[in-house]
Each structure stands twice: as structure tokens, then as C-alpha cells.
Predict the structure.
Amino acid sequence: MTTILRPRDGAAKVVPIELFFDLVYVFAITQLSHLLLEHLGAAGAARTLLLTLAVWWAWMYATWTTNYLDPDHPTMRLTLAAMMLAGLSMAAALPEAFGPRALWFAASYVVLQVGRSLVVAVAARREPIGHTFRLILAWQVVSAVVWIAGALAGGTGQVVLWVAALLMEYVAPWHGYRMPFLGRATTAEWAIDGAHMAERCQLFVMLALGESVLVTGLTLAEGEHLSAATVAAFGVAFLTSVAMWWLYFDNSAEAAAERVAAADDTGRLGRSAYTYSHIPIVAGVIVAAVGDELAIAHPLGPVSAGTVLTVLGGPALFLAGHAVFQRVVFGGLPGGRLVAVAVLVLTGLLVLAAPSLVPPVALAVLAALVVGTVALRDTRPRTAARSA
């Protein structure tokens, strides 16, 4: 009988059905960036963050699933197709998830999470990983009740209950999904294919960067007047996207994949390095995309708090996330990234104190210079090593 498990030989590759599955999340990322753009206040940012965490969690569990189970197995292909449908429904509800489509969003998310875990718990019931997924299923059934209750409550109750549901789900892996009468799992049972996990997360970062490029192009295309400042902001936004790509992919992505694959406890390191540490990286790219749109649309216009927090805050969040990622995988804190984050944060505070002195395009130039400098600084040691 053909096993549903993926071989644990370290040679797992991302297959076409996984790439097809990711298309849903291209749409979800676009929905999230537009949601933030339309609600740039504190409440809007907090709600967008909550929804971003939910979207990331749904995608991340799919990644862990296909790391263990063969996505080309007929059962898993059908499961991924059903997950795509639920994910597409969830993404469609994002703009009004805190309004008339709250129940739509919650129901789609619950079906996606619980449905997938149920299939895996049954399909892998005789395998060692089956125990972990039975625990995951139990936790997701409990959190599902809270998600649905929040959608029905509306208003402040919805926010409180949805935050509680997310906290339940995000904390559960840290204690091994401990449940009464079911026991708990350990990270030693979560041995992963490090190269596959790294490749999947690299692809999600690429999806987020793709949204940044898409926003940059569309904003320029839809502009009524192509002034020199508009074209300059467009070029700077593109360079910032290139710098973020360069920083993430040029050196650390491949080295981190090798480090995780060689770890004694791949499950523990993979959980910390990818499941959690990549959250600010992805969020930073999405926030930066919103900042790009604002800077291109109004390069010399007034600077609002939203403009400052997205144009400078997005790259700062990305750099901070990348610093945490490197700390988790390689140890030590990369000082260059911390200095860069400090520069962006301090500049933002100064601009907020006197917003009329600096136009959005100038903030975009600073962000590009800071991220670009860090990327080039990271490149130099490897280049020198190659020439030695």
C-alpha cells in the first residue's frame, strides 16, 4: 500500500499543487494590504494585524502538513483543493471581517483549519505524526467555538474573542498541544524536512514582495499626472523591494535552510525560525507595500502618521523580523539590522513631531537607503570569502 507520508530523506521539493494552493494567498495578501490602506488608524492597523496572523496561521499549518504528508497523494490533492476553496472564501471576507461578513470569515477559517486537521488525523492515524495532529485537531475544535462565538457577538466582544482564539492557537505549539486525557507532543516528534520548510516560507516572502511590486506598478499606472516626484517615488519603492529581496534571499535564506536541516531537533528550530520568526518579516513587506502606494500617489503631499508608520515602519518591521530570524537560527544579534531599525524609528518620531518638513518621497528615499545599506553590508563578507 502506498504511504501518504513524505519520505524523510531530506530531498522533498515543493510540487505544483503546493504552488497552485499558494495562489489563494496572493489574493489574501492583496486584501490585507488594501484593508490597511483604507483603515490607517490604530484600530484599523490592529484589526489588520489580527487578520494577518489568522491568514499566516492557516497557510503555515498547510505548510507543516505538506512537509509530513505527500501533497501528490490523491487524498492530499483533494484536501488541498478543498483548502483552497475555504481559503478563497476566507480571503474574500477579509475587508468586512469586522462587519457584515464576520461569520463568513470565521466559518471559512474554521472549516479550513479543522477540516484539514481532521483529514490528516484520520489519514495518518497509524503513523507517529498522527498523535500530534489529533492534538492539533482537539485544540482547533476548541478555538473554533471561540471564533464562531466572536463572529456572532460582534463589536468589542468579537475583537476580544478573536484575540483569545488566536492566542490559544499561537500558544498551543509551545506546550506541545497538551490536552487532558490526550497527553502532549514533543518537538522531537515533529522532525521536518528543513529544506522544504525553508523553501515554502521563502515562497511566501516572495508572494508578499510580489504584492509590493504589484502595488508599485498599479499606483503608477493609475496616476493622472506623472510628475518627476511621482516617477522618483516609483523608482525608490522598487529599489526598496529589491533591497528587501536581496537581504532575505542573497545569503541567509539558503544558509538558514541548511542549518535547520542539520539541527538535532528540526521540529523545534523550524517552529521558532519559520512558524513564528517569519511573521514580522511578512508583515513588514505588506506594510511597506502600503507605504509605497502612499508615497507614489502623493510624493510631495502632506505627511500623515499613517504615511510615516508605513513608509518607515514597514522596512523597520521587516529588518526587526529578519534580525530575530537570524538570532534564532545562527545565534547572536545582528547589530547592523538593529542600528537600521533604530534609525528608521528615530526618524519616524522626528518626522511625526514636525510632519510639514519632510515629504513622503524623502521618507521613501531614506527607507531605501537604510535597507539597501544593510543588504550590501551583508553581501560584502560572502563576496570577500569567495575571492579569498
